[in-house]
Amino acid sequence: MLENPIINSPALEELKEHYSRILTLLGEDKDREGLIKTPERVAKAMLTLTHGYEMDPQAVLNSAKFKEEYSQMVIVRDIDFFSLCEHHMLPFYGKAHVAYIPNGYITGLSKIARVVDIYSHRLQVQERMTSQIKQCIQDTLNPLGVMVVVEAHHMCMQMRGVEKQNSITTTSDFTGAFNQAKTREEFMNLIHR
Fold it and tell me: Which of 20, 72, 81, 16 has the alpha carbon at shortest distance from 45?
């Protein structure tokens, strides 16, 4: 059986202590029945939500990199993701759409989704995450172009501040062949069918 990296994380005990202190600072009784295990649960949750720091997205792409002469657009759309806003540590979540035009190499389709997971499992801003996904694919596969569109709901806008429940934030970034408006338009039409 594989070791659970969260349970064996050297940070787990220290995080538990900090979350116990936070409960006290909020005016709660940390020894109340419903809260006894809360510091440990929250510590494990935070380690899970930020495990992307421990992973190498380029290694993931390279683990399934294949020589192939296909040179048309490859799209993986509607990739669900969850992340934490680095400003308030509240969730933002949505879908990422990723396209690339191969230049002699392709990668396993699931690896594109894993790259999204790796960057989303960090404290993030949507704009940076969009660019990181694009740049990782560009640097690793050296395709003719990459385009990434991310659509997300931000709990920091829905639960606090302006409290706008139905707002969606869309970001995009692109390289190479996607600098041409026609290629971008083709991608956008395909993801919004």
Answer: 16
Does the annotation count 192 as an active-site position? no
Active site annotation includes 85: yes
DSSP state of 160: S
The residues, any chain, with a CB within 8 Å of residue 134's CB and separated by 6 or more, are 146, 147, 148, 173, 174, 175
Query: Catalytic residue at 87?
Result: yes
Q: Which of 87, 127, 180, 185 is catalytic?
A: 87
Mean per-residue pLDDT for 130-143? 98
State pLDDT tens for residues 86-124: 999 999 999 999 999 999 999 999 999 999 999 999 999
Active-site residue flag, 154: yes
Of residues 86, 127, 180, 185, which has the active-site annotation? Answer: 86
Let me know: does 104 contact 56? Beta carbons within 8 Å.
Answer: no
Is the entire prediction scored with pTM above 0.70?
A: yes
Q: 44 falls in which pLDDT band (50, 70, 90)? A: very high
Q: Which two tokens stand for residue 158?
A: 């829905």
3-state secondary structure of 11: coil
Q: Any idea what DSSP says for residue 34?
A: G
Using N-to-C axis directions, what is the helix angle for 126-141 and 109-120, rounded to 10°?
140
CB within 8 Å of 77: residues ≥ 6 apart: 95, 97, 98, 190, 191
State which H helix or E strand residue 62 sits in: helix 57-62
Whether 136 is catalytic: no
Examine the residue annotation and report whether 153 is marked as an active-site residue of this protein: no
